[in-house]
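Single-chain item
Fold in token form
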Amino acid sequence: MNDIHSVVLIAVIAAVTIILRFLPFVIFNGKREVPKYIIFLGDKLPYAIIGMLIIYCLRNVSFGAVSDWLPSFLSIIIVVVIHIWKRNTLLSIIVGTFVYMFLVQTVFV
């Protein structure tokens, strides 16, 4: 891949991202009422996406040995506890990731 191709690719990705970010503001510019199904999707989709991410992350977990599944489930518990305690998604994900990497690389080697 040459430099021109890379620049064009990044420009197209940036343009599509900008269009998708501003499109709701253009469609619902304050003059039109937001339909109920859009509000419903805005309320429910984040939880559905998190659920799908959990399933995706746990799809290859083996239950053959404790060291295969325990780090993942301890990290999930940490993420849930921190999220309930602090209500900060970024903090809970960062701490959960740190705990998982620590357990995998030091405890369950």
Remarks:
- The chain has four helices and no strands.
- The mean pLDDT is 90.
- Residues 1-32 form one domain.
- The helical segments are 3-27, 36-58, 66-86, 89-107.
